[in-house]
Amino acid sequence: MNEIKKLMNKTMLNTYVFNLVLGLVLVIITALFSNQGVLAKLAFGISVAYCGLFLSLYGGKAALLQKFYKTLETEDTTQLKVVENSVLLNKSLVSFSFNIPVLIQYKDITLVRNEDNVFEKARPGYKGNHKIYIKAQDKEALIPVSDGQVANKILNFLQTQNSSIQFQNKTTEFEETELSSLDNYKVSGRF
Q1: Which residues does 189 contact at the CB level (< 8 Å), separation at least 6?
Q2: Is the separation of the CB atoms in 37 and 58 below 8 Å?
Q3: What is the rounded distance in angstroms from the CA atom of residue 63 to the CA atom of residue 86?
Q4: Residue 72 and residue 63: Cα distance in Å, rounded?
Q5: What is the pLDDT, as a whole number, of residue 191?
Q6: Which of 18, 22, 61, 121 sits at a 20 to 30 Å CA gap from 160?
Q7: What is the SS3 assignment for 77?
Q8: Which residues contact 15 (CB under 8 A, 6 or more apart)?
Q9: Is the pLDDT confidence value at 9 over 90?
């Protein structure tokens, strides 16, 4: 459970860190010049409001995550695999996608789409990120993966868990895949 909390908190912080740091820098800079006139005081007020807005958004999302963690208490987290912004469990998937945490049971998944990187076909030797889009009733998740091989392993695992899933852009034949045969996958940055 601690691994899931750590991943979700880190992913949420990455969503807001740029705006929080920018807001803090703006507050500091405008505070230095706030006694220079009306426009400087106005700039200081705007920078405080900007920083306050993102602090409140971050605080609200942190409270939402705390409620979400309570829903995970019944899940079996003894065996898990981390894939970028998501955690694959024995019977469910936990993800922080589209700026919200979601818990999706494999049996509820209706559609899985593999969105490959178009530049891989146009430029020989080019490797780019792929994305796996998962839809289940009223929930959805988007998982970035490093390449097509990783995507196909995850698609095979999902098909092993639920054979009635509709797949789009699946390029390989089905091969039964268990959770234990997957690795922890991380998308490394291009720079």
Answers
A1: none
A2: no
A3: 19
A4: 15
A5: 35
A6: 121
A7: coil
A8: 61, 99
A9: no
CB 44 within 8 A of CB 34: yes
pLDDT greater at residue 56 or residue 189:
56
Strands (E) in the chain, as ranges, are 81-83, 86-88, 92-97, 100-105, 111-115, 130-136, 139-145, 166-168
pLDDT number for residue 190: 45
CB < 8 Å & 24+ apart, contacts of 65-73: 65/8, 65/9, 65/12, 65/101, 68/8, 68/101, 68/103, 69/1, 69/4, 69/5, 69/8, 71/103, 72/1, 72/4, 72/103, 73/1
C-alpha closest to that of 101 among 35, 169, 19, 5? 5
Amino acid symbol at 49: A
Q: What is the Cα–Cα distance from 102 to 122, expressed in whole angstroms?
A: 35
Under a CB-based contact definition with an 8 Å cutoff, are residues 165 and 159 in contact? yes
Write the CA distances from 89 to 14, 152, 158, 178, integer angstroms.
Answer: 23, 18, 11, 11
25: pLDDT confidence band, cut at 50, 70 and 90?
very high
Main-chain phi, psi angles of 190, to 5 degrees: -80, -15
Q: How far apart are CA 183 and CA 154, in angstroms?
A: 10
pLDDT confidence bin for 120, thresholds 50/70/90: low
> Average pLDDT for residues 134-162, to the nearest whole number?
90
